[in-house]
């Protein structure tokens, strides 16, 4: 099969605010008394793309199959010198369960599959490769209004491509009571597109550039089993597990300059620092020896192991990775006659986090105002005090050190429900076919090695719901 595609999309939006309506029934802008003091805003985007493709596939004896795909695509989202790129993929598989030596076994499905191919990323701003401007009324001159840059053009901006290699196994046995699927993959992304900070003299704060190569390796597992299945009882158990590790293979000079800016940043949380051979999500901070009991100041550890009171961003080292060693879920579904009980747990382990709650709400808080009780109980106050946090009269933003890095292991009960199907003979006289009663709750508990308060901006939402569903 072969074909081609040509597409064009455009959007035009305008936004303004009018005020002073005397009745909610008169919503036309003509009934407003005035406009808001802010200027109107809007957007105008247009993209075009063209491509050709060829797909071939074959299956022999319902045992072996092969798929070949080739695509050549172009998009106006990229620079005029690099708008087209080739993409291809090859996939194959072996239905082992259809071999003669598998006859008589309790296996219904045993498939080995593998694939390799290139994928392209096109989810970017339409004008990322063009130089665009916006008029600014605050820059008014005698002959008109001045304009400021929105984006800086890059005619050589090219496609971000990912070479993905995958090998997988599908297994079903014992009449569907055991079902398993496992995948191992390696993804190499070249010409990685990221926003790079620009000098103020350029006129924009960031621009999109191809800055390097990244590799992702991972493993995914999905398992479902039915331990109990009879006339009255049925119990299903399931497990999912995912692991992904990334590594920077190559960075550009632009990203090295960005690293220097991120390294010297003294904000609340550390910014990423990208280095070849290391993870994109590595957490880098200055090692800390704790709070000095005599002075209430933090003691920093330099790269040579020496202790000092002077903070130096060049002493930052890796203290974990925000990307966990594993994430997934465990679910259970139990039925007894007309009752059904289901629950789902989510878990994560092996990741690290920088606890901003401690940095801003405890150590960086001003005790003169409403504050966490740990500000008074756990901060250094007098010489000789052994405390977790620095002196109480120092309300400056804490330095980015290992004291605020914690292991982020958690187990969360995301949902629990109990339902009952009302017998038909009770509801037929009301003209109903089916009726369900259900009690549903979420986030009953959250166990974690890192204590983080969300506060009032985004609190934990624990809800309880009762529902009645019926069909006529």
From TrEMBL:
Pfam families: TonB_dep_Rec_b-barrel. It comes from Hoylesella shahii DSM 15611 = JCM 12083. One of its GO terms (cellular component) is cell outer membrane. Belongs to the TonB-dependent receptor family. Its main location: membrane. This is TonB-dependent receptor-like protein. It is a multi-pass membrane protein. The keyword Transit peptide does not apply. The keyword Cell membrane does not apply. Residues 13-248 form the TonB-dependent receptor-like beta-barrel domain. It is found in: Cell outer membrane. Keywords: Cell outer membrane, Membrane, Receptor, TonB box, Transmembrane, Transmembrane beta strand, Transport.
């Amino acid at each position: 099969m072969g074909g081609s595609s040509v597409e064009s999309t455009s959007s035009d939006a305008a936004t303004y605010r009018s005020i002073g309506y005397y009745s909610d029934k008169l919503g036309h802008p003509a009934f407003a008394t005035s406009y808001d003091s802010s200027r109107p805003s809007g957007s105008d985007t247009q993209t075009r793309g063209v491509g050709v493709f060829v797909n071939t596939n074959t299956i022999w004896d319902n045992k072996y199959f092969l798929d070949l795909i080739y695509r050549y695509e172009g998009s106006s989202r990229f620079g005029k010198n690099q708008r087209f790129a080739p993409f291809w993929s090859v996939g194959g598989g072996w239905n082992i369960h259809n071999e003669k030596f598998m006859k008589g076994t309790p296996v219904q499905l045993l498939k080995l599959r593998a694939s390799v191919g290139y994928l392209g990323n096109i989810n970017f701003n339409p004008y990322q490769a063009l130089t665009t401007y916006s008029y600014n009324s605050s820059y008014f001159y005698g002959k008109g209004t001045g304009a400021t840059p929105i984006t800086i053009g890059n005619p050589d901006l090219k496609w971000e491509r990912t070479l993905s290699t995958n090998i997988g196994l599908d297994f079903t046995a014992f009449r569907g009571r055991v079902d398993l699927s496992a995948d191992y993959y390696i993804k190499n992304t070249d010409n990685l597109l990221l926003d790079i900070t620009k000098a103020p003299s350029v006129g924009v704060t960031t621009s999109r550039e191809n800055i390097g190569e990244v590799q992702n390796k991972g493993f995914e597992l999905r398992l479902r089993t039915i331990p109990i299945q009879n006339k009255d009882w049925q119990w299903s158990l399931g497990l999912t597990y995912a692991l992904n590790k990334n590594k920077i293979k190559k960075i550009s000079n632009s990203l090295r300059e960005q690293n220097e800016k991120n390294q010297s940043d003294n904000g609340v949380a550390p910014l990423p620092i990208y280095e070849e051979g290391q993870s994109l999500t590595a957490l880098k901070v200055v090692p800390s020896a704790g709070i000095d009991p005599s002075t209430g100041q933090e003691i920093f550890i330099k790269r040579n192991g020496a202790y000092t009171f002077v903070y130096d961003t060049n002493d930052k080292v890796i203290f974990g990775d925000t990307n966990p060693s594993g994430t997934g879920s465990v679910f259970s579904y139990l039925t007894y006659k007309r009752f059904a009980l289901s629950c789902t747990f989510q878990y994560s382990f092996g990741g690290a986090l920088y606890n901003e709650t401690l940095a801003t709400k405890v150590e960086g808080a001003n005790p003169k105002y409403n504050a966490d009780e740990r500000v008074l109980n756990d901060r250094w106050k007098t010489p000789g005090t052994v405390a977790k946090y620095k002196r109480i009269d120092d309300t400056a933003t804490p330095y980015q050190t290992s004291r605020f890095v914690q292991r982020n292991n958690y187990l969360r009960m995301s949902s629990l429900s109990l339902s009952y199907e009302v017998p038909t003979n009770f509801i037929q006289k009301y003209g109903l076919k089916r009726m369900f009663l259900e009690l549903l709750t979420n986030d009953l508990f959250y166990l974690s090695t890192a204590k983080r308060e969300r506060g009032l901006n985004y609190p934990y939402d624990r809800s309880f719901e009762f529902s009645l569903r019926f069909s006529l």
